[in-house]
Each structure stands twice: as structure tokens, then as C-alpha cells.
Amino acid sequence: MDKTPNQEEFNALLQMVEQRRKPGVSEELANAVPWDIRRAGTLSTEEVQMIRSLHNSFARILTDSLGSHLHGPFEIVVAVVEQITYSDFVHRLPEPSYVASIALHPLQAIATIGLDMQLALQVIDMLLGGSGSAVAEAREVTEIEEEILRSVADLICRDLAAAWPPVLKLDFRFGRRQDQTQLVRLMSPREKVLSLSLEVRSAGSQGMLNLAFPTVVISALLKELDEQGSLRPQESGSSRALQLRKLLGNCPFHAELLSPAAPISARKLMQLKVGEILEFPSTVAEPTLFKVENQTLFLANPVAIGDRRAAEMLSTGSAPKLIKEELN
Q1: 156 or 328, which is more confident
Q2: CATH code for the part of the protein at 253-272+280-327
Q3: How is domain 40-227 classified at the CATH fold level?
Q4: Cα–Cα distances in angstroms (integers) from residue 188 to residues 80, 105, 195, in the given order
Q5: Rounded-to-integer distance, Cα 227 and Cα 231, Å
Q6: Where are the domains of the chain?
Q7: Nearest to 115 by CA among 85, 131, 135, 144
């Protein structure tokens, strides 16, 4: 016997398959958006704002301590917070620059610090008792000047360690001065780093302080911010209640309309037959109980809407008449 389906049967099978391929789309799927894999590991706008807020605190601390250390007025503000490759960070540093490494414990990671050379020379002049006037032309620092500048690098590390503990406790330790060849080897050129640029202003001039933190530090920082709730949407109590109410709106609950319990004699129960009417001691004017999951919510009257049974809600479940039910 030929088992090959005819055209009509074949069309019916195709229709069945097509229906299975097009199930109802849930609300979650309807709100889904395309995900760009190229943005994996990229900081969101909210995360950047949280990191900026953390380093605004660092800038204020460094403003006070640097001014006290150099005996001169300074103003430091966060200019740019972004996530770029380490090679881009290195290429953006002006030449010459004072660049050094910072060891981050206990993460066993290395950060990079860069200071505009003109600003570095101005700081050295102030540390040596000068007025800190602007430098006409940048030059490389001498070995003695490098040792003098070390105190400022230690100060920056100390203030970073003071600003981060509310989120992530790290020990920032000055490593060493890095030349251009050593600098490019501190991190992978393609590694995404957290780049911070702070503008340092004084009476004489202004310059940039640049910091680069590796991926492992970004991950640890964001994890702590998320666990503390800093990165979670801050919803008001009313918003959470509305969201919960919306979720519960689709949940089914068992509801029933019951008359309060009434005593019936055993004789009447034994004499019951099909078609007989059993009279209850309560009157028809006495309301029944509307229950949901065995919890009384309202007193109600049974009514009809067309051929459907219904209930007319009279009062809440706290009505005094419910005492009768509880006693029975």
C-alpha cells in the first residue's frame, strides 16, 4: 500500500510545523534587544558615572594633601573617565612625561601613572623652595629630581588608598619610574583599561595626571559596587509594589463562595434523597463568604449574570459577621 502523503496531507503537516515554530511571544522576549558581542566587557554609562563619583572623592583628597605638601594652592578635578585599550592610553601620553608603575595588592596587578612633564618640573621647583612658576619648555628630570618627585607619587598612592576603601580595599604601592620601552610592557596593548584623566591647576600653570587600571581591577571594582547595590536601579517602595502587583496579576488563585457553617442534624442527613431540598438555618438575606486560597476577603451575596454564577461584594472580610464563622 502506498504510504506517500498526498498534497493535502503534506500541506497539513507543513502548517503544523509552522505553528510550532511560531509560539506566543512572551513579554520578556518582546522587550528583548539585540546584543552586540563587540561590546562585551565594556563599561556602561551608569558604571562610568559610579567610577567618576569615586574618583571625584579622590580628587578632593588629593587637592588638600598636595596643597599642604607643596605649600601652594592646587585644584584637581576629574576630566575624563573612559575605557580604552592600553596602547591608546600610552599613545595619548605627551612626550616627555613622568611615568611610573603602581603595584596593586592583593590583586597582584600593575597600574600606570603619568604626569605631564611641565607639571612635574613645576612640582619639583616648589618642593625645592621655589615659587612653582610655569616651565617654558619640558625636559627630562635628573636622577636627583626623580627622587624628589617620588614623594608626590607616594602621596598619590596614599590618597588612592584612602578614596577606594568604601568600595574596594587595595594597597597602592609605588613601583618605579618607567621609560617608554618598559611602559609598553606593563600591560597587553589590547587590554581594556580604565583610563582616568585628572586636570591639575595651580597659580602658575595646569597639567594632566593620567591613571590606567587593568581589567582585573575594573572587574573587582564593579563586583563590589554591584554587591553594595550602587549599580542596581534604585526603585522607590511604590515602584516595587507596582511591579509586584503586575507580576501577581497573571497568577491564578482558587476562589470560592461559601455560606457560613451551619449545624444540620444527623437525622436530616440520613433521610436525604435525590431531588429533596435541605433547608439551612441561615436566612437568604444573610451574606455568604468569598474566600481566596481559604482566606476570607469579603462578605458577598450570590447573584447571577446571565447563565453565570457571580458574587456581589458587600464588605471586607473584617466585618463583625465573620465572627460567627470563626466560632463555628
Answers
A1: 156
A2: 2.30.330.10
A3: Chemotaxis protein chec (3.40.1550)
A4: 22, 19, 15
A5: 8
A6: 40-227, 253-272+280-327
A7: 135
